[in-house]
Amino acid sequence: DIRSNGYHILYLTSRAIGQADYTRKYLQKVEQNSYQLPDGPVIMSPDRLFSAFHREVIIRKPEVFRMACLRDV
């Protein structure tokens, strides 16, 4: 178990904050070989859907948000 080893799981996505419920539900449903992802906070982009979509899909630079966010963590 990851937590028993002292690790704290943090999920980071450049998805828009408006997709928060969908993203959390998706993470809860992920399963592989009867294992599920551990619980943890989900850090999301504060941008609106179009801004996040533009960054992720059109200019293909989702790492811009992620790198800035990880520096703050």
TrEMBL record:
Gene Ontology MF terms: phosphatidate phosphatase activity
Every LNS2/PITP domain range: 1-73
Pfam families attached to this UniProt entry: LNS2
Highest taxon in the source lineage: Eukaryota
Signal sequence, renumbered to the chain: none
InterPro entries given in the database record: HAD-like_sf, LIPIN, LNS2, LNS2/PITP
GO biological process, one term: fatty acid catabolic process
SUPFAM superfamilies according to UniProt: HAD-like
One of the record's GO cellular component terms: nucleus
Name of the protein described by the UniProt record: LNS2 protein
Protein species of origin: Mortierella sp
Organismal lineage: Eukaryota, Fungi, Fungi incertae sedis, Mucoromycota, Mortierellomycotina
